[in-house]
Specification:
Elements lengths: L1 H16 L1 H14 L5 H40 L7 H23 L12 H52 L7 H12 L2 H13 L5 H6 L4 H10 L3 H10 L10 H15 L1
Helix pairs in contact: 1-3, 1-5, 2-3, 4-5, 5-10, 9-11, 10-11
Length: 269
């Protein structure tokens, strides 16, 4: 990911190196348009491009640092499931946008501060940046995305198998399918060790947990369990419905499906 930042940093460096050529191109453009303050137009246009490029480079640097943090955390947890999907998708979108903008800039004689082929030095720098970004995306971004997807798939498969095991165990349980056990399993899967320890410490420090908290809870057990079901992704509700053999679950909205799952598990008790 730092490679994409380096591409933007190189583009910024080229802007500075070819400053005079770019200023001259903007100045000639101002002459062609018979602008009154041609020198001011050229300087303002260049500064605008420079500001945009500085912001873009800093944006890529921030994204790279955040991705490095998630990669380090994933390595520590020995699972690349926690790699940031937001970073991967954002970088992919930024690369696509750069390609589209290059096409627009080279086919339109006047697009905002960039004036198409009338500023050849600027377009040349942008072409180098786009080509380098696409290459970096193909070499690094795509493999990282595939690694992330493989870990997501493996985790969902493991969760599905555990849910099946929980349901099989509930067949011999007189209390039926235990929704609370399922919620605890989901919460433990979705939290990293640091968040788990923080939650446990907060529970120990909170004087309103335990019996006092239960006495203050005015919601019914049904409402609480349905709320918990609604907080889950719809894909997990579909997996539960499949395990519980609920017919037609694909056509139900999320709230109807949650109520159906609750009623079904309640009837099993």
């Amino acid at each position: 990911m730092f490679s994409l930042f380096l591409v933007e940093a190189i583009q910024l460096l080229l802007l500075v190196v070819y400053k005079n050529d770019i200023l001259l191109s903007f100045y000639k453009l101002a002459q062609q348009q018979n602008l009154s303050n041609q020198e001011s137009f050229a300087i303002q246009s260049f500064n605008q491009q420079l500001g945009i490029q500085i912001f873009t480079a800093l944006l890529y640097l921030g994204i790279a640092v955040y991705f490095a943090y998630t990669a380090f955390a994933s390595r520590k947890l020995k699972s690349y499931y926690h790699l940031s999907s937001f970073v991967i998708n954002t970088l992919a979108i930024l690369i696509i946008v750069k390609v589209i903008m290059l096409v627009v800039f080279t086919t339109n004689s006047s697009v905002g501060p960039i004036t198409g082929t009338e500023v050849p030095a600027l377009i040349a720098i942008y072409v180098v940046s786009v080509v380098a970004s696409v290459l970096v995306g193909l070499v690094f971004l795509r493999p990282v995305s595939l690694i992330k997807k493989s870990f997501v798939f493996a985790r969902r498969r493991n969760e599905f198998m555990k849910m099946q095991e929980m349901f099989k165990n509930s067949q011999s349980n007189p209390n039926g399918f235990d929704l609370n056990a399922f919620f605890n399993h989901v919460n433990n899967q979705n939290k990293d060790p640091y968040m788990k320890s923080q939650d446990e410490q907060a529970y120990q420090d909170n004087p309103y947990t335990g019996q006092n908290y239960k006495a203050q809870n005015v919601k019914s057990e049904k409402d609480l369990k349905i709320e918990k079901l609604l907080s889950l992704p719809k894909e997990q509700l579909h997996e539960m419905a499949k395990i519980l053999n609920i017919f037609g679950y694909e056509k139900l909205d999320k709230k109807e499906l949650a109520e159906k799952i609750y009623n079904y598990t309640k009837d099993k008790k």
